Amino acid sequence: MTPSSEIGLSRRILSKIDTKLRSDLDEEKGEWLVKVPASPAVRAVWKRYCDSVGIPMGHGLAVLLHHELASIVDEDVETLSHRLKAREAELEARDRELREREKELRQRDRVLVLFKADLEQREREVAARERNVAVVEHNLAQQLKQIAKTEAPARPGRKLGRNEPCWCKSGKKYKNCHLPQVG
Predict the structure, then answer these.
(1) How far apart (Å, rounded) are the C-alpha atoms in residues 156 and 56?
(2) Cα–Cα distance between 167 and 152 in angstroms, integer?
(3) How far apart are CA 78 and CA 8, in angstroms?
(4) Looking at residue 183, what DSSP letter applies?
(5) What average pLDDT does this structure show over 19-40?
(6) How far is 121 from 89, CA to CA, in rounded Å?
(7) Mind giving me the DSSP string for 97-155?
(8) pTM to 2 decimals?
(9) DSSP characters over 100-111
(10) Average pLDDT, stretch 74-80?
């Protein structure tokens, strides 16, 4: 982890600082070996401070340098840190929302697959019932034809009078039952 990411400076801020101070800063990368003019008492206090925080003395100086450079472009480390934390929280919230939506989509996909399978099963059942109904209708039609052939009353060879009982044995007069209506 780089010191800039540890204290919350973004590359954009560092780039702004670099552009503003390019003429004053050494562009070489790596470590600087510098002599820091400080009394032994200041050095001892600085060492105790860095030890208590748990960072090397050089790293502590780098943090101070970053803090000072950030203040040049009106960005203090706390503001940057708060902004960074807020952005991280926003990204985490979006990530959670995305995971929830993905979970919901997977659930909907499962429901859709089950619905399609159920629909296909019902369509097969309906098709089978339609075939059965067609067979039953065909059989009924055949039976009706058979019944019509066997039970059709024979018409007499002679011509019936209008007021005679009908040849179909309905009990009605021929004129009210099977006499063709003219008219």
Answers:
(1) 129
(2) 11
(3) 8
(4) -
(5) 63
(6) 48
(7) HHHHHHHHHHHHHHHHHHHHHHHHHHHHHHHHHHHHHHHHHHHHHHHHHHHHHHHPPPP
(8) 0.35
(9) HHHHHHHHHHHH
(10) 63
- Give the closest residue to 25 by CA, choosing from 15, 35, 36: 15
8 Å CB contact between 10 and 84: yes
Beta bridge pairs of residue 165 = 173
Give which of 66, 63, 59, 89 is closest to 13, Cα–Cα.
66
Give the whole-number percent of the chain exceeding pLDDT 90.
Answer: 30
CB 77 within 8 A of CB 67: yes
Token pair for 137? 């209708």
pLDDT of residue 25: 44
Nearest in space to 66 (alpha carbons), one of 135, 17, 117, 136: 17
Among candidate residues 158, 160, 142, the one with its CA nearest the CA of residue 150: 142
Q: Would you tell me how many other CB atoms lie within 10 Å of the CB of residue 158?
A: 6
pLDDT surpasses 90 at 137: yes
- Please list, in sequence order, all residues whose beta carbon lies within 8 angstroms of the beta carbon of residue 72, skipping any fewer than 6 positions away: 17, 20, 21
